[in-house]
Amino acid sequence: MVGVIKVLVVDDDALVRVGLSAVLSAAEDIEVVAEAADGADAVAAARRLRPDVVLMDIRMPGLDGLSATAAVRSLDDPPAVIVLTTFNTDDHILRALRAGANGFLLKDMPPRQIQDSVRAVTAGEPMLSPAVVERLIDYVVQVADDDERRDQVKVARAALAHLTDREREVAKGVAAGQSNAEISGDLFMSVATVKVYVSRIMAKLDCANRVQVAILVHQARE
Fold first, then answer.
1. Domain end: 88, 106, 127, which one?
2. CB burial of residue 23 (10 Å; 0-12, 13-18, 19+)
3. pLDDT digit string (tens) for 31-85?
4. Do 66 and 147 have their domain in common?
5. Using alpha carbons only, how large is the chain's radius of gyration in Å?
6. Angle between helix 90-98 and 130-143 (nearest 10)
7. How far apart are CA 176 and CA 127, in angstroms?
């Protein structure tokens, strides 16, 4: 089926897996290609089936969701990973994003929002609202001492120095939590061009996702 988004659902709770699979399968443009009950099975399934998106639980026996996310994201041409949890804490979100996750989703979100989230990461759009991005940036700043902050500023500014002026403008849009379409409108570029710029920026800055870009931009301003 051309255009269908292939999804792998990973959770150690069978009822949660069934529920998520039912929600996703109800959408005509989404197909659940497999389910996995732990991180090790998730990595093996992702390698074998090449899904477009993995819905990954954090807390699982054996290989946990954060370690599994890092392993999945290190694959060649990796799938997008949305981390699932009932724990809405800054530390869980930040650790998931540092592991390479493309987004963060609470398990009690409405079915339509879960479906839309899968579509969003497939399209390369951010999975966190500007408010959540701001919270994460504040959290990173708060947990660092003065010496760490100075080091962070130095590293961030050195990294951003490798960007062109246009790339910096796009990076600022990413840091503001804007979608590709919003950046496109502000900078008078096509959405496709913005996507190219975002990919190039993430590669130059060695960032796995847009939130890491946002944190670097913020740290450079300190």
1. 127
2. buried
3. 999 999 999 999 999 999 999 999 999 888 889 898 999 999 999 999 999 988 7
4. no
5. 17
6. 90
7. 13
